[in-house]
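Researcher: Structure prediction, please.
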Amino acid sequence: MNAKRILIVVLALAMAGILLNQWRLQRTVSRLNADAHSKNANNSSSEQADSAAERLRQAEARYNETKAELQLAEQKLANASAQLAQLDTRLRQLETAQKRGPSVDLLGPRRPRLPTGFPNPDEIPVESTALSNTAKRSWGPEQAAGEPDTFQAGDISTAWASREPDGGEEWLKVDYENSVDIAEVRVRETHNPGAIFKVTAFLANGTEVTLWEGVEPKAEPPVEMSFQVPDSVNAKSVKVYLDTKRVPGWNEIDAVQLIGRDGSQQWAKEATASSTYAEPRVVNRGRLVETP
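Model: Predicted structure follows.
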């Protein structure tokens, strides 16, 4: 009887141990499942975060593309505005020319005007012009004599222009009333500035000396470009050299002012040039003749 009771107690304890182990095993499995769900949830959050970051990068890329397109559109608008302003200036010049009489085709394309020969062998071309003796031609070198009269930027006939726009080296020589110790030469450029590479002066004995040489700084027209003269040079004639290939298009000069060390200021009374886009003047048997 006692042995039977002991056996029953042992079996009961063994059953209790089995149940306890089963409970512990179920608890462990539950904990593992919870950890697995938590890990899956974290992975899902990480994937969502990565997806959100990717969408943000795509949005930033689209924003940058839109911004670049907007900047390009603004640049095109600025260019169009500049072209409209130049067109408006040319229209006003055309109206002025029509009121004065002789018409000048300011809107049409430029064409070489200088003929290769003349029908009369007694006729020879004359490129130099004294301001006091003859009328100013459109784009002639005489346009650089006297005070400035081109007050807006653009291809305007009241400034000197060479025969070709990008032909290489050209020069404009200006003469003044009085000889002075030169302190400064101011060149008023009204179209495509930046081509000047040297400024010289002529002494009383005809010797040409360099006042300045180098690369002209970039500037927006119209501009009065100042060339300082460090050494004392006494002269009343100045020559401005241009490399017309440096800046595309016609490089036009409206006036050249001579500043003396005594503070005096002079505008040129005469001007000559290596070439000009103006209609040529010819000498017919010693008489100055205007070509039609």
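Model: The radius of gyration is 43 Å.
Researcher: Thanks, that helps.
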